[in-house]
Write a structure and sequence with these properties.
This protein is mainly alpha-helical. It is built from 13 helices and no strands. Among the domains are: about 100 residues, MazG-like (Helix Hairpins), CATH 1.10.287; about 50 residues, no CATH class.
Length: about 280
């Protein structure tokens, strides 16, 4: 017996069908939620990006109890986009799932096809890139850099662009050359600080950040992950400064830079002693 819409919405074991029905009801033009009804792809996209970062944040903090909810929030974003697409006659949620399944099967012939699994991870990565290149060619994306999503975080997109260029030999052959370029770009920023306008200075800083991303790539470091860790470290140490000042009934705005620098060094020393 098929459950009614109300039964499904309130079924705690309803799974994916329940979530999709809730989304359909939220978007119902007559009985749905006014906010959800007003949304479109572009207005929901920022929330999709935010939810992906919250998943990454939960993993970074090893907050496994929170991860289930964050993954659910991210899944809901896919359901939301698919519902809007279905309303426009573009595609359905099943089409999304089937497209992804087809892609994974096609990209893993060593698992789902007749290819031999006895190959290194490096060889599998090369095979993966070959398959993706064929997919891009089928989409008439002929340029080496075609298909690198514009909406990616800037550091991540920089690395992807650099990896694409490196495949055809446009890359520094050794890390020393990257470090030399980093020094050069830093010097250009220093020189531009007092001689160029804001837009030109912004361009120089962008060049510097692009080389930093390239350095991270050559060191096999994920720059987004490294910067998140640096942010976490900064936050932890600055809170340590606040805690030390609060112990004397004061706040950072009542301190001096020299004092806060000294407290910062004290926090670093405490961290080293605890390792």
């Amino acid at each position: 017996m098929t459950k009614s819409s109300d039964q499904l919405v309130h079924d705690p074991k309803g799974g994916m069908d329940r979530l999709r029905e809730i989304m359909r009801r939220l978007r119902d033009p007559e009985t749905g939620c006014p906010w959800d009804i007003e949304q479109e792809f572009r207005t929901i996209a920022p929330y999709t990006i935010e939810e992906a970062y919250e998943v990454a944040d939960a993993i970074e903090r090893e907050a496994w109890d929170e991860l289930k909810g964050e993954l659910g929030d991210l899944l809901f974003q896919s359901v939301f986009h698919a519902q809007m697409a279905e309303e426009k006659g573009l595609f359905s949620f099943d089409d999304v799932a089937n497209t992804m399944s087809d892609k994974m099967v096609a990209r893993h012939p060593h698992v789902f096809g007749g290819e031999n699994r006895d190959k290194s991870a490096e060889q599998q990565t090369r095979d993966w890139e070959t398959i993706k290149a064929a997919e891009r060619a089928a989409k008439a994306q002929q340029g080496v850099l075609d298909g690198v999503a514009i909406g990616l975080p800037a550091l991540l997109r920089a690395v992807k662009l650099q990896k694409r260029a490196a495949r055809v030999g446009f890359d520094w052959p050794e890390i020393g050359m990257v470090l030399d370029k980093l020094t050069e770009e830093a010097q250009e920023v220093a020189e531009a600080r007092d001689t160029l306008g804001h837009e030109e200075l912004k361009e120089e800083v962008g060049d510097l950040l692009f080389v930093v991303a390239n350095l991270a790539r050559h060191l096999d470091v994920e720059p987004e992950e490294a910067l998140r860790a640096a942010n976490t470290k900064f936050e932890r140490r600055f809170k340590g400064i606040e805690r030390r000042l609060a112990a004397h009934g004061r706040a950072p705005e009542q301190s001096t830079l020299d004092e806060m620098d000294a407290l910062w060094e004290a926090e670093k020393a405490d961290e080293r002693s605890q390792k």
